[in-house]
Design a protein that fits this description.
- The structure is a single chain.
- This protein has 198 residues and is an all-alpha fold.
- It folds into 2 domains: 17-70; 73-197.
- Helices cover 87% and strands 0% of the residues.
- It is built from 4 helices and no strands.
- The longest helix is centred in the middle third of the chain and has 76 residues, at 72-147.
- The radius of gyration is 56 Å and the shape is rod-shaped.
- It starts with a helix and ends in a 16-residue tail after the last helix.
- Residues 1-16 have a biased composition (Polar residues).
- Residues 141-155 have a biased composition (Basic residues).
- Residues 1-25, 141-160 are annotated as: Disordered.
- This is A-kinase anchor protein 9 isoform X1.
Length: 198
């Protein structure tokens, strides 16, 4: 027994140092215990806040369920309104995405339409010029026939031979003018107009 005490005493130089070391260990343990108590208290506070939030959420959910049950028609209408707004947003985005491609197609159609109109104007001008020349030719032939001194029956026979060709030509010129300038292309009833009405 005396040997064990002497052995323990040999670990420390003096009994005072042994007491100081024990006091430091006790102080350190107390500090750790205090830290653990603080952490435990913090955890308990967090747990309490979470429990309060859970309780509040449950009450809020119950309140909303009651409101939905009391106002079922209103909730259904709001749901439909939300679906309509989503559909409107989707359609507007789709229209915006198609705007670029539609713009390109519209530009091409406008160019083709403009080219067709210019071509029609040129053709109409050419037709009017041909009509003017034929009218002039008819007037010249009539004047020439009138200036010649021949029997009346011979003059009448020449006029009857020259008029049909010019009259038919002028008639079809009028047809073309009506087609390109005055009438729709699908309305060709005027073609059957008698010659004497032109």
């Amino acid at each position: 027994m005396a040997k064990s005490r002497s052995a323990s005493m040999t670990a420390f130089s003096t009994p005072q140092e042994h007491q100081e070391m024990s006091a430091k260990q006790i102080e350190q343990l107390q500090h750790e215990i205090q830290e653990n108590l603080s952490k435990l208290q913090e955890v308990e506070q967090k747990t309490s806040r979470v429990e309060e939030e859970i309780t509040h959420s449950k009450r809020e959910t119950e309140r909303r369920v009651e409101l939905m049950m009391e106002n079922g028609e209103l909730v259904h209408a709001l749901q439909q309104l939300g679906c309509l707004l989503q559909e409107e947003t989707r359609l507007s985005e789709q229209l915006k995405s198609q705007a670029a491609s539609d713009g390109v197609q519209t530009s091409l159609l406008e160019k083709r339409s403009k080219a067709a109109k210019e071509k029609t104007k040129r053709l109409a001008a050419e037709i009017l010029e041909v009509k003017r020349r034929l009218a002039k030719l008819k007037a010249c032939k009539k004047h020439k026939l009138q200036s010649q001194r021949k029997p009346a029956n011979q003059k009448h026979s020449r006029e009857s031979k020259s008029r049909p060709l010019v009259d038919y030509t002028l008639f079809y010129i009028n047809v073309l003018i009506n087609v390109f300038l005055l009438k729709p292309i699908n309305d060709l009833s005027f073609i059957y107009t008698p010659l004497h009405t032109i």
